Amino acid sequence: MHRGRLRLPIALATAVVVAEAAVVLLRPRRGVIDPAPVSARSYFSERYLDRAHDFRRPQLALFGGQALVEAAILGLLARRPPARLRGQLRHPLLVAAAGGAALSVTLTVATLPLAAVGRQRAKDVGLVTQSWGGWAGDVGKSTAIGAGFTAAGAALLLGGMRPLPRTWWLPGAGVVVGVGALFLFAGPVLLDPLFNEFKALPPGRTRSDVLALARRAGVKVGQVYEVDASRRTTGANAYVTGLGRTKRVVLYDTLLRRFSPAETGLVVAHELGHVHYRDVPRGLLYLALVAPAAMFAAARLGEALTPREVRPGTPAALPAAALALGIVAALVGTVSNQLSRRVEARADTFSLELTHQPAAFIASERRLVEQNVADPDPPGWVTWLLATHPPALQRIGAGVAFERDRGTSAGHPAPRR
Fold first, then answer.
1. DSSP H helical segments within 243-357, as ranges?
2. Among the listed residues 214, 216, 254, the one whose alpha carbon sits nearest the alpha carbon of residue 371
3. What are the residue boundaries of the structural domains of the chain, listed by start?
């Protein structure tokens, strides 16, 4: 095979290998309990398992359908760029920005029917509480924000491609890392409040319990917020976000209202584990390690997808670049999910060791699964391809293993062999 034909597969393989190497480098080596084997039917009824499968598997198909629609549109535009992006342009950067915004809106509108079907199905199982009008408002806001960011990204991309048609990927990698850091720092205070109301936990038992757990964990949590998730969903969750002064632990109001204090404490302890191990900045480090190889692969793939008659560094080359970035991001994202699942498993272990309450841990996992109508034991390929967290059954198995190894009483049903 001609050496030139090997450049693209080598670039793609390099991006995957570098991502895998970064996973190996940053992967937690200690502090993770090996889960005990458990049966889903020991913790969930047949009726619930059937309900979860009937809901989640079509949802997965709808998600895949949206991805295929987006890829098809990008592929068509890459093969035949719009006439307005071709030829001699007086203001190419402005054209690129307008084209980026238009592309973002087009992708949103094209996938909206599938998104609406998925939302109706979630509403049918009681997971969605928001009205269609409220959802339309959220879609409008997210579409406008997405168009703005895509416009800026397209202008930046073309601004790099024009003077550096072969090496724009190198400064582009720096931009990716910088933007990632900016979003982590500013997102909690600038973007998140556009969609939800956040309020600091008021003085009371929950706040006292959170602060006591933080002291025992030896971590500074920043601020602890309650978010009005119930305006959209009955599902429960919690998360850590932000960098530096914007670092915070966020708890869904549905979690605080429907979970017992012990169960809530286990969820909080899990999030404190992320703070303890500095998982958010470590995630940014992973991005910094992977971005150069990923952007190089995207540059080479974009060149291969661009029609020969399209000159590099022109707005007409942007659809191919966008498609290439999406493909490479999907490849690298699948690899990075390995790291995410291991990090989440370590946070689970941290919560168990901090609280010594395997019964509450298992109860909280069961309640999270049922309240979110989740599949506790999805097919292995789904976990490998998409999951950022271990399957719930593995997390329950970690609680069982903790009980077995520490000699505590979890108070859960014995797993069926």
1. 253-258, 261-276, 279-305, 318-355
2. 254
3. 3-13+38-406
